[in-house]
Amino acid sequence: MRAGSRVLPSLCLAGLQALSLIKRQAVTLAPSWPHGLLAAFEPYLVSANGTALLLWDRRTLALVLTVPAVGVEGVVAFVGSEVQTVSPGKGSALPLPPPVTTTRTTSSTTAAPPTTSTTRLTPSKTTTALTTTPAPASKATTPTTTSQATSTKTTPAPKTAQTTPAKTTTVRPATTSTTTTRTLPTKTTASQPTTTTQHPTKPSGKVLPTPPLPSSPAHTLTPVPHLSCPRMHMPCRDGTECVAQEYVCDGEKDCADGSDEDGCAQLCDTPEAFHCSSGAVCVRAGERCDGVPQCPDASDEKGCWSPTQECALRCDTATRCIPQSWLCDGHADCLDHADEQGCVPKKCDPAEFPCRSGQCVALSLRCDGDRDCRDGSDEEGCAVPPPLLCRPGEVGCPLSGGCVPEAWRCDGTADCQDGTDEEGCPWEEGLCGDRQWGCSQGHECIPEIWRCDGESDCRDGSDEAGCQPAPCQSHEYPCGLKTCLNASLVCDGQQDCLDGSDEGGNCSVPCQKPCAHLCHSSPQGPRCWCDPGYRLAEDGLTCMDIDECTELGKGACSQTCLNAPGSYSCGCLSGYQLEPDGHLCKLTGPEPTLLVAMQSEVLSYSLRSGHEEVLLTTDKERVVFSLDYDLMERKVYWMDLATESIRWQGLDSGKKGTLVKGVRSDCIAVDWVGRNLYWTDGAAGQVLAIRLGAAWRGIPEYTVVMDGDLDQPHSLVLQPLAGLLYWSEVGSHPRLMEATMDGSRWRVLLAQGLGWPTALALDLPTWRIFWLDEKMGSIGSARLDGTSVKVLQLGWVQSPFAAAVCEGQLYWSERKAWSVQQVDKASGKNRTVLLKRHGQPHGLQVMHPSLRPAAHNPCAVRGCSHLCLLSSRHTGRCRCPAGLTLAADETSCLPLRNSAFALLASPAAVAQVYLKDLPTTAGSQGLPQHRALPLAKVGRLTAIDYAVKDKSLYFAEVGGDSIGLLRLKDWGRLSWKKAVAVEGVVTSLSLDWLSGNLYWIEGQPPSIRVAASGAQWALVLLSKGLQGAAWLALCPHASTMCFVTASGSHRVSATVECAAMDGTGRRPVWRRTRAPTGLAFGGAGTRLYWAERERGTISSVELDGSGFRVVREGLHGLSLFTIGEGFLLWSTSSTNGSSKIWHSRLERADSWWFPMEQELVAMRIYSQFSQEGTNGCAKNNGGCAHLCLPNPVRRLCRCSPGYHLVRGVSCTVAVPCPAPLQTCRDLQSCISREQVCDGHPDCLDGSDESDCPSVEVGTQVAPSGISHVKEEKPAIPTATPKPWQPVPSLPPVPQPREHEEPFLVSPSPEEVLGAIPCSSETCNLRGDCAIEAGRVMCHCTLGYRGDYCEEAEVQPVAGPIALGVAVLLLLAAAAVGALAYLRRRDRRRRTSSTASTRVLTLYHRESDPEEEDEEEEELPPKSDTFVNEAYDGKEELPALLRKGPSRPDTTLS
Fold first, then answer.
1. In the Cβ-directed half-sphere of 349, how many Cα atoms lie within 13 Å?
2. Which of 20-34, 382-396, 1262-1276 has the lowest mean pLDDT?
3. pTM, entire model
């Protein structure tokens, strides 16, 4: 409605009307309007249909915009009006500009809240609320609601009202106006009402300016220099008042100076002006036939219709428009059938054959052996006679001659002219399905819901026999013979029921009930009756409205339904129009076309005219499988199985191209909004996508949308308007699935009652999904939320491949019957065979613009470098093709080799820096290019870890009661949650990215704990001997964890220990480290790296304790350290508080640094490669009920405290033991102290006798509470070693015991090394690593040799030179030895010790703690053969942790 109260559209039973509140005239905009009305503001109307908001052009009633929205019941708009300031001297007044936005307020019985105007009333005429009697004026907008003695035209609602002893009412215009679209303005209430009057004059249209408020009542008004008028008003020339535009040039002077009528004669004198039928009023040419009446008699909107494509015919007394495509289509769309009258046979093009039935088929289909005309006239009079002998796969027609495919035999349709192909068909006895009903005679089976539906579907009509009649409605009387009679015919003196039950009885009793609707007499006495559309309530007096939209469901309307008191109305979506029956919706615009892939051809079949032509043809040996189309670029896409490629061809130009090669798919689908093409790969269990604009250049540009848990995906359909895709799976567990189109979220839509759902189709207007089941022989449908499932088991559904829905029909291709068929989508009835040709049909689509409505593409502004996939909430997500990975900006794609990045954690923030962006010059200014993640909710971080696949950051903080989880859905959206509760301070944490388990070190005394994914189960894994425990590191694909513990009472000295990730096999790897920091796995997980603050070194060692070496030294002020992807990263701090971040390639000696202002608490390196592999808990939690803990053999199931393990995988609640009893180790029974070690096992697991002194083989109880038998190490003969490599002796591999699995027994090296690329570290930094013929090979640099470049080559030298060098070395050694002897003797003399004869070696020395602290230790040598007392050369290193295939088998105890 216009702000000036000009027109108010209203919805009535007759259609859509507009009421001029000024002229008090109603104009019918549309005689029929089923869409409802929520809001109106010129020039738009807003309605809703249950699934979308519709914006209409009020003048043309054309749909302007459709916005998907479900369940909208009301719309509120806001008006932003602008004011115009006009000087009093202006010659003419101009209308105000249109508003930017619109508003709709709720209706009220009082005036709208006043705006910024002020009302002044005369002392003698006060204003109060008046009656709503309409004023008999010629220019009324509504019944008069406000009384003023001097007003003549209605004024806008004032903001504040004040009574002053001044003159006539003046109103200052408002800068913002409010209107309503549901009710007309009613009463305007002013302050202090005293009297009520009405004026039979023209309602006030003047709006007078308001000067500043006077300081005294005697103050007089003075002219204002400028005047602001509300929208749809114009200022008078003298600047004293505003007049509504309705009164301009209306023949009456409304301005005091008459300026509203100036220049009006000039308007009528212009040639383009339209003269209204009554009076001397004229309107501009542009206002003629604009849908809005401007003339008082609305004559400017009469006689405006002219035929268009959308309205080629007006019928039914000009109340209905018929599109051009509906004329002469064989279906009456007018009630008077005017659209099918005067039709002449369509003239076919020269390249078409005219059928006698009126169809036009392509001339190439003439005499091709297939009847393409409905009457078969295209195969008559052909020069080639029918074959005398039928080919293999055909059956003959004995009477009429000719052959038909064997697939057409007994398919329910006579294909032979004599009908013999449908004679003698075998009937299957008693094989009706669970959802079918067997007819009484013959062998027919019909869907169960067809029984008693009012239509005879069995040939003998037995499906309607014995059915109960429908109950009578509230306005009907039930006769005795189960018939219904109108209530008005009861007790009328005539017997209308056959049994006469409508007369007699108590008919003479007068009706005196207080009925809500009608009261009629009846033989049973007076009764209340309700009008049609109502139902009598339980009290027998009142009537309740029947919601036909709910009770009748889709039987009420084919698309949208609007309930009304006593009735209902149907509506259609954009692109559809309601049929005369008021229920069905029919497509407008061009004729819908069916595209069918038929062997090596694609056919186009017009669904109304039956026009058929060959759209494209490929080589005969190729098969066009699945197909789809894109109307924006006018292309058809199809799957070519012969060349394993997806190809396309232009609909208009015929140009062809290839989208992608090397793919096989059962189904493809075009995303017309996001501009992508999707397909399924049933063999690989994947859904993939590629850009529609891609061109094959030899490199695949597609991305895998979903992978992993898909069980033979087959059919696929898209819903881009909601960002969803649906697919069917035909594997061992058939189901229908739904997911976002980016694959981020998916769910099971339906998993019950399915066999092989091979064909899917979406019906967007009804929000349903249809499927055809080859195994069940059925057609099913359900709402897109998985509810309202409906299944029809039909005999003619045999081998469906593809399906499509259009209007009220379901189409599908039947491969077994070589045909394309259709049925009513709602009932499954009225089966029709559309196409029947030699060759199997496959892909199927209905092509029409309204089936693929245009919508905003969020990917158009997303800026993705490669692919953008639609997601929910109308957003787009960038994806990358194979071989690339998404960068941190979530927009661009990087090669996988450039995907490595470091996370630098400060106390309250985390920065992500790609390794490729690290500076290559020392002293770079500030942090390099990075992405910062501020953690506002975190106090001070202590430890972090990151899951690359899930983009999840795990972190611990000082004083926190839990380990937090921060999901980085994208860098701008974060999701916080608590991962697991903790009690003490977490000093280190590490994630098993394969199983999802989280390990951490917590509390004092320290303990290593583990929690399952989801944090439902947790336990203490290790708790003994963990003094000073820190720096926990995991290698999940090797099922190994390592950590650092303090050595003795010295916190500076520490030991590096390792164990299996189930806590077993714990052993030291390196004993004498000094203040270690940053423990991390390197290479293939067979080597450990750490930094030592005190020594300023970075060292590494093999997991068996061998191969120690110093990687870097001389690092003063070393603080943190990490390694990954061939990079070393460490931080140093100086005495002035500044810090530096250093980085270096592992194989190079040079390093660079950049300054860091913030303090760092942790640093880690990750990449797309860094979290790959598998272990025993990677899938389905290893089959464990609670925790699955991997080890190198497989896995160990554990239970949380309070539960005990059953059958190795299940967990049950433990038995509580009262004091003084104690619990057995299996937590299943209780024993007393006297029963322990009494020689008789009382516990079911025998644990009460397991640690007794009499047991020869000692046992120890692991911190986890599991008994582990100490392993004996008898020597066995060793394999003959190579001459150049020392070989330790080989102990036997211990056998698994109960509750124990040996730690270091593992798969082959190839399984581990193959998961992670080899590097120069594998070759001891002395060569290049390569994988050749499945083996790791090292190409050594000059001067080194061996499988891993572990030996230095000895070059022969000349004899004299060698002898001279030897002599010099001997002399030097003697001198050094003598000097050392003299110094040692002097030291002995200066001390009083008598026991200083011990050998002072670096790692084989027993000394007092005080002596050790005072002594200055030397740096360990960098030789691989340096003695490590934590290393036993006789122990066996398993295959999993060996450096190469040539090393002997070793193991650890």
1. 9
2. 1262-1276
3. 0.55
Cα angle 297, 298, 304; round to 5 = 140
Q: Compute CA distances 592 → 172, 321, 346, whole Å.
A: 58, 19, 18
Asked whether residue 1422 carries a pLDDT value surpassing 70, the answer given is: no
Q: What is the number of alpha carbons within 13 Å of residue 1451 lying toward its C-beta?
A: 18
Name which of 475, 22, 409, 42 is nearest 250 in CA terms: 22
Cα-Cα end-to-end distance for the chain: 88
d(CA 172, CA 704): 66
Confirm if 187 and 145 have CB atoms less than 8 A apart. Answer: yes
Contact 335, 322 (CB under 8 A): no
Cα–Cα distance for residue pair 558/581, rounded to 1 Å: 11
Digit-coded pLDDT (tens) for 436-470: 888 877 677 888 888 888 888 888 888 888 888 88
User: What pLDDT, in 10s, does the model give residues 1061-1097?
Assistant: 999 999 999 998 888 999 999 877 889 999 999 899 9
What whole-number distance in Å separates Cα of residue 795 and Cα of residue 113?
Answer: 67
Flag whether pLDDT at 1402 surpasses 70.
Answer: no
Structure tokens at 311: 């309205």
Amino acid at residue number 918: L
- What gap in Å lies between CA 849 and CA 591, rounded to an integer? 10
CA atoms within 13 A on the CB side of 1327: 22
- C-alpha pair distances (Å), 733 with each of 268, 626, 750, 753: 79, 24, 11, 11
* Sequence-distant (≥ 6) Cβ neighbours of residue 13 within 8 angstroms: none
Please report which confidence band the pLDDT of residue 634 belongs to, taking 50, 70 and 90 as the band edges.
Answer: very high
Tokens of 765: 């207007």
Whole-number average pLDDT of the chain: 75
**How far, in Å, CA of 881 to CA of 863, rounded?**
16
Q: Which own/partner contact pairs does 449-457 have at CB distance under 8 Å and 24+ positions apart?
A: 449/790, 449/792, 450/827, 450/829, 453/827, 455/829, 457/829
CA atoms within 13 A on the CB side of 317: 3
- Continuous segment of H or E residues that includes residue 1359: helix 1359-1390
